[in-house]
Design brief:
This protein is α+β, with helices and mostly antiparallel strands. The chain has helices at 35-57, 71-82, 125-130, 140-152, 195-208, 219-239, 248-263, 270-293; strands at 2-8, 85-90, 100-101, 104-105, 108-113, 118-124, 175-176, 182-183, 266-269, 303-307.
Length: 308
């Protein structure tokens, strides 16, 4: 379905017993006939993915060494990837086995299914689960699982069949044993507000909207626009105190960003356009707040809507 967008003025690897009843069993059976083994493997992968998502949502990633990636950008892209995926564990005789890239054996592989609009992950049942000494509590599974989503999010791009684990190799340091391993959310000092950082976020929005794109090939453009607006939203929500007085420069940047969003338009898949408009309307609320705090005389305001 197409839609048009218009302007209308503890990650605590805590060892806890996971109730398998909380997860719907997958219908995939491995070639050996060990359907239960395949299901348990998939349940384990999904439980770890859920833990990683919870860890990120609660700022557990704040101590990761992200290099040039911002914590907000990491969180936005990773949570998006973790929120839309399907996993299958395969063994001999199954479609997709052996699991490999360029003839090199891998624990898991991933790709974006454009037809179903979902991230797909396929894991070797033995390498990820049944061949491990403790398949329900092995820290290596966290490194592998995080890597699959970091690759989908664009943070660990492989070089041919050579995987990149720059971020994922740090994950196991956050695991703590309780009943089963889960990621610990370790406290970090709240960052001090910086108007320079706020201005950087505003420029990020402006740059993301320097061009518009319409149609299915535009997902990367929309993803960047959503990322930039969400980065701004997170910073404003966490750092801005209404008692602050912002500079004229910040106010002008906020107004320019609002103008960019209000005058942009997009045509494409309804799901993507809905995500875009939700992010933009949240961003417009924050941009209005920033303009008011900077004393902008004629703040730019609008609301975005979808025209089916």
């Amino acid at each position: 379905m197409k839609a048009n967008l218009f302007t209308a003025q503890a990650l605590a690897l805590a060892i806890i017993c996971t109730a398998t009843g909380l997860f719907a069993p997958m219908a995939h059976a491995v070639g050996t006939g060990d359907k239960g083994g395949g299901d348990r493997c998939e349940l384990r992968f999904k439980a770890i993915a859920s833990d990683i998502k919870h860890w990120i949502a609660n700022d557990g990633h704040a101590r990761l060494k992200l290099g040039e990636v911002s914590p907000e950008g990491y969180a936005t892209q990773m949570i998006a990837a973790l929120s839309n995926f399907r996993v299958t564990c395969v063994g001999p005789g199954d479609e997709g086995y052996p699991v490999e890239v360029g003839g090199k054996a891998k624990e898991c592989v991933n790709f974006y299914d454009a037809n179903e609009k979902v991230n797909r992950i396929q894991c070797d049942l033995t390498k990820f689960y049944s061949g491990l000494k403790n398949p329900e509590n092995d820290p290596v599974q966290y490194r592998i699982t995080h890597h699959e989503f970091a690759t989908l999010a664009g943070f660990e791009k492989p070089n041919s069949d050579d995987s990149n684990y720059a971020l994922s190799s740090q994950i196991t340091a956050f695991l703590e044993d309780q009943l089963i391993k889960k990621l610990a959310i370790k406290p970090s000092a709240k960052p001090v507000f910086s108007e320079e950082t706020l201005q950087k976020r505003l420029r990020g929005v402006i740059n993301a909207y320097n061009y518009t794109c319409n149609g299915d090939p535009c997902y990367s453009v929309w993803t960047e626009q959503i990322r930039a607006v969400d980065d701004l939203n997170r910073y404003v929500d966490r750092q801005l105190n209404n008692d602050l007085k912002l500079s004229d420069k910040t106010g002008k940047l906020a107004r320019s960003a609002a103008v960019k969003i209000c005058t942009a338009w997009a045509t494409g898949d309804l799901t993507w356009v809905a995500r875009l408009v939700a992010s933009e309307n949240a961003g417009l609320d924050r941009l209005e707040q920033v303009q008011e705090m900077a004393g902008v005389a004629n703040p730019k305001k609008c609301r975005r809507k979808i025209n089916p």
